[in-house]
Write a structure and sequence with these properties.
about 500 residues, transmembrane, about 65% helix, Growth Hormone, Chain: A, nitrate assimilation, disordered C terminus, mainly alpha, MFS, transmembrane helix, 4 strands, globular
Amino acid sequence: MDIPDSGFESQEPRFALPVDSEHKATVFKLFSVAKPHMRAFHLSWISFFSCFVSSFAAPPLLPIIRDNLNLTATDIGNAGIASVSGAVFSRIAMGTLCDLFGPRLASSSLILLTVPAVYCSSIISSPTSFLLVRFFTGFSLATFVSTQFWMSSMFSTRVVASANGLAGGWGNLGGGATQLVMPLVFALIRDIGAVKFTAWRIAFFVPATFQMLTAFAVFIFGQDLPDGNFNSLKKSGKKPKDAFKKVLFFGVSNYRGWVLALTYGYCFGVELAIDNIIAEYFYDRFNLKLHTAGTIAASFGFANIVSRPGGGYISDLVGRRFGMRGRLWVLWTCQTIGGVFCVILGRVASLTVSIIVMIIFSIFIQAACGMTFGVVPFVSRRSLGVISGMTGGGGNVGAVITQLIFFTGSKYSKETGITLMGLMIICCTLPICLIYFPQWGGMFCGPSSKKQVSEQDYYLSEWNSVEQEKGSHHSSLKFADNSRSERGIKNGALSTPATRPSDDAPPPHV
């Protein structure tokens, strides 16, 4: 994949890719490992992939594990909730840590901290210990936030959704890969000579070791920003130190972040819920073999090869033509269609039709995930990590609520739960209509003609006059200039010159 630039960004000789004024890459070369942009891309998705594999290594082996540990349906449901609930808090914290310390250190540290939980999966002996290892392993899913933050720091506004979509989507592939790989690893170990109740325990050493190796790779070979790591840039004065309270404040006080957190809970959150139950669903409902059920379940996650990246690419494509309003419209449309197919999935009784509907559902719901992070980078410049963490955490909250309501205990059959989950997707996608950027507009109306608000006004409102006098706002000013493309071609994104507001007249909070 080679996404072309728009033809007017600057070229910096010391970078392998063309860059803009923030030194963010303006093209995306998929098969390049050029430092720092493309190397960050490959390190981020591979490390996130490893965390996904670890977090969902248990579900494809549940028919064996439940017999060994005497797990009830309630035990399995609670463990599924635990596997995604821990990441609710870790994702929010990860966003703040990325803002303050950089994605490289934040990501590698969390991955290493959760590796022991994966190894401990091999020694569990009760429903309680099964729940605990799934809970602590799930913390690693917060690396999604560092992945999205890293891509938003490395790629310009015109290709950022494509970069976010590919990194997040290929990382999510771990959810499909583990459905396919873990049964094969289990079978291999069993065939070598281990009894089945020992083989599944040994199998967990594979994802644990893989996760540990990716943590070292991120720490050793990664770089936070195009110009260097956070620590060295702060020491040299090139990156001003920011205050934790203000970074947090401008994140949590921006309602757009909360709306995206809610809607992301019913695209990515649904994806997590499906990862937890889909193999068991096909195994029980259609009386399939373990490996067959795992292979079918893997196809849901493997759709991320094209679906989430495709969603990001479509968001960028529509954004270049119609601006932010176009991004919001395609996000709402795609996620709503995904909800419709989720309803259908719960209603069909044919194995073949169920597989086809599941794949269509997965494509739309995962594309919506990519489209969501086509909007997230524009919500706040100063608190990008916090907004990313809120949105990512919202995905896990959605998974917890969905799992708790529909897939825990025996209140609903799995097919009924899937149908009701689809209706919830449709309803919880509607708030996208409430997102409004004063400089660009929203789904149903453009920017106000009475009160002219520019990109500079919006992003510099996060910095007071004292901070602007110190020059802390310069990165936001550059981002504001580069984000003018969100007006769309029809609204003059390429024809209206950018202007800088004077430092002695700070913009109003918008």
